[in-house]
Amino acid sequence: MPRDTLDRDRIVKAAIELLDAEGLDGLNMRALGRRLGSAATAVYWHVGSKENLIALAGDQAWNEITLPDLATTGWREAAGQMATELHAMLSRHHWLVRAFGSYMVFGPGKARHDDRALAVFEAAGCTEAQADQATASIFTFVLGNALGPAAADSFAKKLSRDGGNVDELMRGSMAKATEIAAQYPRLRSRLETASAEYAGAPADTFEFGLAALLDGLQARLALSG
Q1: Residue 55 falls within a domain, yes or no?
Q2: Do residues 123 and 68 make contact, with C-beta atoms less than 8 angstroms apart?
Q3: pTM (two decimals)
Q4: What is the total count of domains within the chain?
Q5: Per the domain annotation, does 210 fall within a domain?
Q6: Is it the case that residue 123 has pLDDT exceeding 90?
């Protein structure tokens, strides 16, 4: 594919597909060029660098989140919808969870999301400072819930790239973790449950935690009048 038939949107879309399939470590301009049928130099010409491409891909992912209309949706329902959509987006793009720790991912997509999140909590009666705190608290909670599955996905991709038997290596790692957990009574009692899987948790854990956070915020606002 000649360079002049490429554009940034097409490159970013292909990069997201490659990142979803291979993770952060699987993204390089040569592999992306092959996916696009173009030379790596042509890709560089459009996006500048791998770091900039990851920032562009990450910001595009934020645009997948549907923002609630505060004219027709109460603040608590809106906050729950945004948190749930953010969690779903991070579950689709595990690489983005890891990217937060290594790359500057901020652009129009994330700014659009963050501005609406602040509006949600201001509609609840928060001051500017409280809206900042509430938005940060919800984001940290969602990110924490996405971290375990993202780590498991990254680990499996690493094992696959290293050429080993992923299932066998995962079983070996889980056997070691189980041996350690069995030495502690509360962990031992949970080894036969579904949440004993790597990065596993009881059903509805995310919903439980989100409701608890929003309950607490609602109670604090009621006390402050």
Answers
A1: no
A2: no
A3: 0.85
A4: 2
A5: yes
A6: yes
